[in-house]
Write a structure and sequence with these properties.
Chain A is an alpha/beta fold. Chain A has a domain of about 40 residues: Rhodanese-like domain (Oxidized Rhodanese, domain 1, 3-Layer(aba) Sandwich). Helices cover about 30% and strands about 20% of the residues of chain A. In chain A, strand 3, helix 2 and strand 4 form a beta-alpha-beta unit. Chain A is globular and about 30 Å long. Chain B is mostly helical and about 190 residues long. In chain B, about 70% of the residues lie in helices and about 5% in strands. Chains A and B meet through strand 1, strand 2, helix 1, helix 2 and strand 5 of A and strand 1, helix 1, strand 2, helix 2 and helix 5 of B. Strand 1 of chain A pairs antiparallel with strand 2 of chain B, so a sheet runs across the interface.
């Protein structure tokens, strides 16, 4: 099995770069998307992030603004 | 999954929430969302899907060897078995779409293998994403991200398929992959 066909890795940014993104774009213009499970979200999440568990992501993408940069964790 | 829906700027937060809390840059496995381009014909989708199922099956069987937990072993075995079933369904679909009748080994050798050339082997892939194989959380997270790719592929293919029966089989497989994601996430929840 060879995987190149399926996966184009997304750009990774670290926490500092993510914070710079917020500074550059303005807090309202960056979406933080939490794709973990609700329990994990409740235990701790990045403030103002939007929770959509991975299993629901395909059905709920409409909740997000595609024009804003999205930081996924 | 998101790139196909108009999202152009997507970033994976490396280190996830842990890195954010501690505000230090770490070198974690990149288990985030990965995307793939979609422009496959129905025929190509089936071939790629077959390869993907094969990869998923290898992945689960591999992971099964890596976990000690009996319940996790059973879960991975069950998922591996279902992927095998999907391969058979896809081959049948391929025959139907192309009007041929291709034996499994010929199909694998002449169609699937060439389509997969230039990629990474499962071992290389795992190495690249370097999940902590001792960590069930890492394994499950990786499995979920792979299933999400599969789901996305089948869904887009189903939307594009002209024939209703082709579309409905692809949708059926897509829904099963969705069930897999839910099973994996339930298992993650139970662990937490």
């Amino acid at each position: 099995m060879l995987w190149k066909q399926f996966f184009t890795p997304v750009t990774s940014i670290d926490a500092n770069q993510a914070k710079k993104l917020v500074l550059d774009e303005g807090a309202d213009n960056v979406t933080f998307l939490d794709v973990r499970q609700p329990k994990e979200y409740m235990a701790g999440h990045i403030p103002a992030s939007h929770l959509i568990p991975m299993g629901e992501l395909d059905k709920r993408l409409g909740e997000l603004d595609p024009n804003k940069p999205v930081v996924v964790y | 999954m998101m790139a196909g829906k108009g999202f152009t700027r997507i970033y994976n937060l490396s280190g996830g929430i842990k890195a954010w809390n501690s505000e230090v840059a770490v070198g974690p496995p990149e288990l985030g969302l990965e995307l793939f381009d979609g422009a496959e014909s129905a025929e190509q989708t089936i071939i790629v899907g077959y390869g993907l199922e094969q990869g998923l099956r290898e992945f689960y069987l591999d992971m099964q060897q890596n976990v000690d937990d009996k319940e996790a072993k059973e879960l991975f075995q069950m998922l591996a078995d279902i992927e095998l079933l999907h391969q058979k369904q896809l081959l049948k679909l391929y025959d139907q779409v192309t009007g041929t009748s291709m034996p499994e080994d010929t199909f694998e050798k002449e169609k699937v293998q060439p389509a997969m050339e230039g990629g990474l082997t499962t071992a290389q892939y795992l190495e690249r994403f370097s999940p902590d194989l001792e960590s069930k959380l890492d394994i499950l997270s990786l499995a979920i991200s792979i299933e999400a790719q599969a789901l996305d592929l089948y869904q887009r293919a189903a939307d594009k398929a002209d024939q209703e029966d082709v579309s409905s089989i692809l949708r059926h497989i897509a829904n099963e992959e969705r069930t897999h994601i839910n099973k994996l996430t339930q298992y993650l929840d139970a662990m937490a």
